[in-house]
Amino acid sequence: MNERIRWIRNNLKSQNIQGMIISNPTNIKYLTNIDAEGILLLTLRENIYITDERYIEKVKKILTIDDEIIVTSFRDLSYEDYENYFLFCENVGFEENYVTYSNYKEIMHKYKINNLVETEWIVEKQRQIKDQDEISYIRKACEITDNCFSHLLKYIKKGMTEKQISDEIEKFFKENGASGVSFPSIVASGENSAIPHATPTDRKIQSGDVITIDMGCVYNGYCSDMTRTIFVDFVQEYMKKVYDLVLKNQMIVTSEMREGANIKTLSKIVEGNFKMNDYDLVHALGHGVGLEVHEGPIISEKNEKTLKAGMVVTNEPGIYLPGEYGVRIEDTILIGENDSEVLTKSSKNYCILS
Amino acid sequence: MNERIRWIRNNLKSQNIQGMIISNPTNIKYLTNIDAEGILLLTLRENIYITDERYIEKVKKILTIDDEIIVTSFRDLSYEDYENYFLFCENVGFEENYVTYSNYKEIMHKYKINNLVETEWIVEKQRQIKDQDEISYIRKACEITDNCFSHLLKYIKKGMTEKQISDEIEKFFKENGASGVSFPSIVASGENSAIPHATPTDRKIQSGDVITIDMGCVYNGYCSDMTRTIFVDFVQEYMKKVYDLVLKNQMIVTSEMREGANIKTLSKIVEGNFKMNDYDLVHALGHGVGLEVHEGPIISEKNEKTLKAGMVVTNEPGIYLPGEYGVRIEDTILIGENDSEVLTKSSKNYCILS
Questions:
Q1: DSSP 3-state percent helix, strand, coil across chain A (nearest 5)
Q2: How confident is the model at residue A53 (pLDDT cuts 50, 70, 90)?
Q3: Best interface-test mutation with B: which of A101, A168, A201, A281 has the largest number of B CBs within 10 A?
Q4: How far apart are CA A229 and CA A193, in angstroms?
Q5: How far is A148 from chain B (nearest CA, A)?
Q6: Which fold has domain A3-127?
């Protein structure tokens, strides 16, 4: 049987859960490689993927006999079929963080399940620890992102708009092996850089600008995420101070990232250092990266867990002065047993375009 | 007050619902024009948008005094604030089709609401009827899509891959006023055209191919959606028969689309005509188009409702012969009181590239 499904099944068994309904398409893609609309049922006897006629052909092309997944169409199922799937299961799991309240009620009604139980991110937690294949895809996505940044340093000229630069990022990714961006790129110049989640505008790049570029691409389904803050023509001394503070903290965190590191503490370090200089850490310090550009674990003071080897996370402190400017520096980082590896390798020295 | 929020408030009042928690970002965008991460609360006294620090700046730029929406940060709220929001409300509505089971439990816990009631797509139903501004944006998105199709007829050459064509579509949209594609374009050639939801591959266009192109763009937040099936060098007679059957049914449906038309009947007409020729209608006949490329109403035999003036929907019958080829023809259509207007105007005559 498909290894990832086997792992989930063992995990469920240890919690006295005999079956599971998996609806989140990203979780289904992770477990089966299927990229369609449908649901995956892990029943006592079988793994079943149910989809509609539009996808049957496509899904059959993706699966191999080793997956041990039966494919069927919604159209071919009777009320009785649904009721029989989990007939002898005491507990059946569902994705309480993905399934809507309406779907929940529908599932209860349709499958006649005795006990529909929450699985607390069971698949998402498994997804947090990347295997060698997944790491190689993320590594490649980061490499393409670095190449894009090098390209941008030559490409960006005064008078260009933020939108133009953002379009160039997308174009570069597509022409260099990525399937596209992992999220809409942020190119925020001048006072726009003070908006952490800015949308590219028609503002033109000009002398003295700070430019925050936050971008990532998707390679073979896996994401990268990197931010660099660069300058045009010159850097004001007061900006240097903010830049240095952000960079210093970003590097401290990276040096502390390894198996066992307390996530809350990592966030507290930055928060404390920022506070001492009268700045706030206004967003989470980072997040997991994988099939989704934002996935678990969240790197913030709210997370009481520790890092584990094989996690891939971002480290992205930022300081924002509304109406003036902002600085954010972000890398995608692979957690190891004794240290961490920065997968996005673009320089973080002052970068001054002219 | 913002007109759309006033409409929702009146609708809620008529159902004896005194407040509502709106979490779906598309619904929030529709009601407020805010494009961020947060929630909108309609309480007895106020409209409140709660977001995090990252978005405060951006949101304040979007709202005007006429919106009558208070903006606040999650960080500034106490447990008591949440409990006070709906203190004197008998019933508070939520989006049961958007809110996850986990969120539902969290809402119950956090706001201490007496009676959290389902609102049955209240905002989505309002969104189905487009106003003049919305129609003008969709019209423009359709016009750009038509222009893209004209461009493709000159651009596509034998030896090009499906992916190349799909990239060209995206490039064209961006260079011609759209903010991007409304969904990943489908360019399915030869036997791939038998897969209704095909993903573009490296397959090269060759003589005798059928090519299904399903694409749409986003203009000012609003979507278009169009499919054309074209031929390379020649059309086999047996393909013509299938093409004619699909086209005839597509045109019959369009001619029947108007205020009051029974949606189920529209679908049944096509299903019946296909069956008589030994084909199945394997997917829904269409769907609403607006801020989302797939929104209500679904045009299928499962929908017992009627069409209403101001709805914008697709009409997209298709026939698929697994392993061989497929034909789908789709327009985006504006429903009027006495007839309908086809907004995507590209020709549906046999189109044979050479």
A1: 40, 25, 35
A2: confident
A3: A101
A4: 9
A5: 18
A6: Creatine Amidinohydrolase; Chain A, domain 1 (3.40.350)
Chain A residue numbers touching B282 (CB-CB < 8 A):
52-54
**Side-chain half-sphere CA neighbours of A70 within 13 A:** 11
* A134 HSE (CA, 13 A, CB side): 20
- Concatenating the DSSP letter of every residue in A263-298 gives HHHHHHHHHHHHHHTT----S-SEEE-SSSSSEEEE
Tens digits of per-residue pLDDT, A287-316?
999 999 999 999 999 999 999 999 999 999
Q: Which CATH class is domain A132-353?
A: alpha beta
Q: In terms of CATH architecture, what is B3-126?
A: 3-Layer(aba) Sandwich (3.40)
Preceding omega of A25 cis (within 30 degrees of 0): no
User: Checking DSSP bridges between strand A210-215 and strand A226-232, what pairing results, if any?
Assistant: antiparallel
State the nearest Cα–Cα gap between A283 and chain B, in angstroms. Answer: 7
The domain spans of chain A are 3-127, 132-353
A96 vs B100: CB contact, 8 Å cut-off? Answer: yes
ipTM, two decimals: 0.84
Q: What is the pLDDT of residue B294?
A: 97
Is the CB of A198 less than 8 angstroms away from the CB of B58? yes
pTM of the model: 0.85
Cα separation, B180 vs A326, in Å, equals 27
- Distance of alpha carbon A267 from alpha carbon A244, whole angstroms: 18
User: In this predicted model, what pLDDT tens digit does every residue of A155-214 receive, in sequence order?
Assistant: 999 999 999 999 999 999 999 999 999 999 999 999 999 999 899 999 999 999 999 999
Residue of B nearest to A199 (CA): B58
